[in-house]
């Protein structure tokens, strides 16, 4: 991990420390409390909104697009190109061709390696909510949460949010769900819909973001507050 990315992580650490001091929580967290929450989500289920609400509630840093931005800074690669690699399935031949055309930095394997190293570095500092990117398979000590929602509700919400037709919204949701699942199968040999991979599976079609924030924050502090990891060796 380069100094650039470590600097980014350090800035985030200072940010969550400041946020934690002013955060309103249902239960006070011990000063040594340092753990992580990962969020796996169906497309359009509101996983990012829930992650942001949890981050605000617990005073944790939220990592979603920030992960891609950090790798872009480290490699000098275009964020647009990196987003084309991010959580998207691509065949070996296609990956090799793009690597030859754009350089090895842009191959999926190189991108995934950098992403895993970044997630591992971030998780070692603790107090993060990490969204997607197979983080539930990279970070061992964490509360892993799966966010789901009935397809019809996701279609309605996504169509309203994007002004797409119902048919277009349905196609976009199905494509993204399939893409994410194929990505995880290819690189982690895992099925992200398997409930056994998660401590909690929550449904945003049944509960509001606020209700789920209360629930997850309560479960998290009750389960992990007395299991903080050893301090990092510097």
In short:
The protein has 234 residues and is an alpha/beta fold. Helix content is 57%, strand content 10%.
Descriptive notes:
The protein has about 230 residues and is an alpha/beta fold. It has helices at about 5-20, 45-60, 65-75, 80-85, 90-100, 110-125, 135-140, 150-160, 165-190, 210-225, and strands spanning about 35-40, 60-65, 130, 145-150, 200-205. The protein is globular. The protein starts with a helix and ends in a 10-residue tail after the last helix. Mean pLDDT is about 80; it is low at about 20-35, about 85-105 and about 230-234.
Helical/strand content category = alpha/beta
Alpha carbon gap, first and last residue = 14 Å
Estimate percent helicity: 55-70%
Strand fraction? 5-15%
Provide a count of the helices.
10
Using the alpha-carbon principal axes, give the shape.
Answer: globular
SSE order:
HEHEHHHHEHEHHEH
Give the number of DSSP strands. Answer: 5
Q: Characteristics of this structure?
A:
10% strand, single chain, 57% helix, disordered C terminus, five-stranded parallel beta sheet, alpha/beta
List the helices and strands and how they pair.
Blueprint: H1 3-22, E1 36-41, H2 47-58, E2 61-63, H3 65-75, H4 79-85, H5 92-102, H6 108-125, E3 128-131, H7 135-138, E4 143-148, H8 151-162, H9 166-188, E5 200-203, H10 209-224
Parallel strand pairs: 1-3, 1-4, 2-3, 4-5
Helix pairs in contact: 1-6, 2-10, 3-6, 8-9
